[in-house]
C-alpha cells in the first residue's frame, strides 16, 4: 500500500510539479473557459436571431429570403462535424490571414452551437399555445411586442433544460480545439502526457471537466427553480 | 430585436478587428533566427521536446500532425517547422515556396520500442543485426529514400508462429505513410523483414503519435516502429532495441 502511495506521489510530482507542468492545465482551463464563454454568447445570439426569423416565417410567411438563408445555415452546420468546421475555418476561411486561434475556435464553436440553439429556441416558441399569440394581438400588441412580452418569456422557461444541455455539450466539444494547436484543457493534458507518458493528466482533465459541468448543472437548477416561482 | 442586431454587429466588428490585427511574419534564414519565432511541431515528437526546451513552450505550437504544422507554415500562421529530415523533404517536395534550412537542428537515433522487460528486444536486436549484414536493410532504405530498387517482399512459404501488433503513426513519409490504402515505408518493410526472420506476422496499428508510447506500455501493441527516437524520458517507460537508423531534425521555413 505504501509503495503504491509513494508511486502515486512520484507520478503526481512528475506530471504536475516538475517544470511547472500544472501551468499547462491551468492555462488550458483558462482557454477552454474563455472559448466556451464567448462561443456561448455568439451561439445564443445567433440561435435566437435564427429561431425568431424561422418562427416568424412559420407564423406569418414573412422574411422568406432570411428564412431560406437560416435554413441553409442550420442544414450545413448540423450536417457536418464540428472538428471539420473548425479545420475549415482555420485553413480555408482564414487561409491568408494570420488570425488568433482563440477567435477561430470561438467562431467555429459559436457558429456550431448557434444552429442547435436555434432549433431549441424555435421548438420553445412553437410550444407556446397559439392562443397566447392571438390574445396578445387582440390586446393591441403588435407582432414584435407579442413576441418579446408574451411568447419569449414562456418559451424561455420551457427550453431552459434543453439549452443547459446544449451548453454542457458545447463546453465538452471545445476539447477538439487542440486540432488547430490551440492549447485548451485537453491539449494541455496531452502536452504533459507527451512528456511523461502517464495516464494521470487524462484523469485530471476528466475530473476538471466533470467539476465544471457539475457546477454548471447546479447553477442551471437554481435558475430553473427561480423561474418556476411564479407558477404557484 | 434592435438590441440583438446591434449586439451582433458589435460582435462581428470586434471579431473582424481582432482578425485583421495579424502579427508580422518573421523571416528565418538560419537556426539563430529561431529565437522568438513561432515554431510549429508535431505533438510529442523530439522536435517538440527540443524546441520547447530551447525556445520556451510559449513559442512552440503543437499540431496533431506534421502535415498540419506545414500547412500552418504555408499560410504564415507560424514562422518555422521543426521535423525529421526525410518527412521534411517529402513535405517540401509537395509544397512550393518552402525550403529546408541547410544546418540541421539535431541528430538522433531511431529505435523500436517495447513494453518493459519484453523478450522481443533481444530477438529484434539479433534480427536487425543480420538484416544490416545481409544488405536487406540498405535495400529498404535505398528504395524509400533514393527511389532505387524494389520494396521489400516477404519470401514465400513462411509459416508464422504468432502475430505482432506494431504501433505507428502513418503520417511520416518515408518511414510510414499511406499509399493505395495500405501503410508502407522504411519502418513497415523493416518490421516485416524482422518478422519474417523471427516467424512473426506483422499487423499495423495506426494511431496518433503521442499515443504510441502509451499503447506499447499498456500492451495494446507489441512494439512501436515510428521513427521513434531514443530519449531518457521514454527509456523510463519502455525498452528500446538497438538503434536502426540515424535521423536528423531539420527546420522548414518559407522561402
Descriptive report:
The complex is a heterodimer of chains A (232) and B (255). Chain A has a domain at 23-175: MetI-like (MetI-like fold). Chain A is 82% helix and 0% strand. Chain A starts with a helix and ends with a helix. The longest helix of chain A is centred in the first third of the chain and has 39 residues, at 22-60. With 232 residues, chain A is mainly alpha-helical. The radius of gyration of chain B is 21 Å and the shape is elongated. In chain B, strands 1, 2, 3, 4, 5 and 14 form a 6-stranded mixed sheet that branches. Chain B is 38% helix and 24% strand. Chain B folds into 2 domains: 21-107, D-Maltodextrin-Binding Protein, domain 2 (3-Layer(aba) Sandwich); 112-228, D-Maltodextrin-Binding Protein, domain 2. Chain B has 255 residues and is α/β, with parallel strands linked by helices. The interface between A and B is large, with 34 and 39 residues.
Integer average pLDDT of chain B: 90
CATH architecture of the largest domain in chain B: 3-Layer(aba) Sandwich
Return Rg of chain B in Å. 21 Å
State the total count of DSSP E strands of chain B: 14
Shape of chain A: elongated
CATH topology-level name of the domain at 23-175 in chain A: MetI-like fold
Residue-averaged pLDDT of chain A: 92
Q: What features would you highlight for this structure?
A:
heterodimer, A: 232 residues, mainly alpha, 0% strand, B: 255 residues, D-Maltodextrin-Binding Protein, domain 2, 2 domains, five-stranded mixed sheet, 38% helix
List the helices and strands and how they pair.
The complex is a heterodimer of chains A (232) and B (255).
Chain A (H helix, E strand, L loop, with lengths): L1 H16 L4 H39 L3 H16 L2 H12 L7 H27 L2 H9 L4 H31 L11 H12 L3 H29 L4
Helix pairs in contact in A: 2-3, 2-5, 2-8, 3-5, 4-5, 5-7, 6-7, 7-9, 8-9
Chain B lengths: L1 H19 L18 E4 L3 H10 L4 E4 L2 H9 L5 E5 H10 L3 E3 L5 E5 L2 E3 L4 H14 L2 H11 L15 E7 L2 E2 L3 E4 L2 E3 L1 H13 L1 E7 L5 H6 L5 E2 L7 H4 L2 E3 L4 E10 L1
Parallel strand pairs in B: 1-2, 1-3, 7-11, 7-12
Antiparallel strand pairs in B: 3-14, 4-14, 5-14, 6-12, 6-13, 8-9, 9-10
Amino acid at each position: 500500500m505504501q509503495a503504491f502511495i509513494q508511486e502515486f506521489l512520484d507520478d503526481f510530482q512528475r506530471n504536475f510539479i516538475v517544470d511547472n507542468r500544472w501551468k499547462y492545465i491551468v492555462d488550458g482551463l483558462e482557454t477552454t473557459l474563455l472559448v466556451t464563454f464567448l462561443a456561448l454568447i455568439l451561439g445564443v445570439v445567433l440561435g435566437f436571431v435564427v429561431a425568431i426569423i424561422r418562427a416568424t416565417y412559420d407564423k406569418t410567411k414573412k422574411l422568406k429570403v432570411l428564412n431560406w438563408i437560416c435554413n441553409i445555415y442550420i442544414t450545413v452546420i448540423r450536417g457536418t462535424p464540428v472538428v471539420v468546421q473548425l479545420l475549415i475555418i482555420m485553413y480555408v476561411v482564414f487561409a491568408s490571414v494570420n488570425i488568433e486561434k482563440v477567435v477561430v475556435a470561438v467562431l467555429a464553436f459559436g457558429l456550431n452551437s448557434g444552429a442547435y440553439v436555434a432549433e431549441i429556441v424555435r421548438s420553445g416558441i412553437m410550444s407556446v399555445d397559439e392562443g397566447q399569440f392571438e390574445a396578445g394581438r387582440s390586446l393591441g400588441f403588435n407582432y414584435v411586442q407579442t413576441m418579446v412580452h408574451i411568447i419569449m418569456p414562456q418559451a424561455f422557461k420551457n427550453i431552459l433544460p434543453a439549452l443547459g444541455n446544449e451548453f454542457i455539450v458545447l463546453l465538452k466539444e471545445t476539447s477538439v480545439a487542440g486540432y488547430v494547436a490551440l492549447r485548451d484543457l485537453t491539449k494541455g493534458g496531452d502536452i504533459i502526457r507527451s512528456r511523461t507518458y502517464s495516464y494521470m493528466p487524462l484523469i485530471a482533465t476528466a475530473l476538471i471537466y466533470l467539476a465544471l459541468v457539475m457546477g454548471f448543472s447546479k447553477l442551471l437548477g437554481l435558475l430553473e427553480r427561480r423561474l418556476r416561482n411564479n407558477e404557484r | 430585436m434592435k438590441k440583438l442586431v446591434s449586439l451582433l454587429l458589435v460582435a462581428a466588428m470586434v471579431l473582424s478587428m481582432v482578425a485583421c490585427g495579424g502579427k508580422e511574419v518573421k523571416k528565418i534564414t538560419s537556426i539563430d533566427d529561431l529565437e522568438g519565432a513561432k515554431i510549429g511541431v508535431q505533438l510529442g515528437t523530439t522536435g517538440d521536446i527540443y524546441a520547447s526546451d530551447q525556445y520556451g513552450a510559449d513559442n512552440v505550437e503543437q499540431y496533431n500532425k506534421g502535415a498540419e504544422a506545414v500547412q500552418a507554415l504555408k499560410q504564415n500562421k507560424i514562422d518555422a517547422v521543426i521535423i525529421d529530415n526525410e518527412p521534411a523533404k517529402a513535405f517540401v517536395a509537395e509544397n512550393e515556396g518552402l525550403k529546408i534550412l541547410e544546418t540541421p537542428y539535431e541528430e538522433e537515433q531511431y529505435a523500436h520500442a517495447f513494453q518493459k522487460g519484453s523478450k522481443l528486444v533481444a530477438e529484434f536486436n539479433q534480427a536487425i543485426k543480420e538484416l544490416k549484414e545481409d544488405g536487406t536493410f540498405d535495400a529498404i532504405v535505398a528504395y524509400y529514400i533514393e527511389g532505387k530498387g524494389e520494396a521489400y517482399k516477404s519470401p514465400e512459404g513462411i509459416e508464422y508462429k504468432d502475430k505482432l501488433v506494431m504501433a505507428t503513426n502513418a503520417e511520416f513519409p518515408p518511414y510510414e505513410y499511406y499509399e493505395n490504402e495500405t501503410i508502407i515505408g522504411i519502418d513497415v518493410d523493416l518490421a516485416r523483414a524482422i518478422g519474417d526472420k523471427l516467424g512473426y506476422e506483422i499487423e499495423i496499428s495506426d494511431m496518433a503519435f503521442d499515443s504510441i508510447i502509451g499503447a506499447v506500455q499498456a500492451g495494446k501493441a507489441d512494439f512501436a516502429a515510428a521513427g521513434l527516437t531514443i530519449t531518457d524520458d521514454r527509456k523510463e517507460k519502455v525498452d528500446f532495441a538497438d538503434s536502426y537508423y540515424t535521423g536528423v531534425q531539420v527546420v522548414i521555413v518559407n522561402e
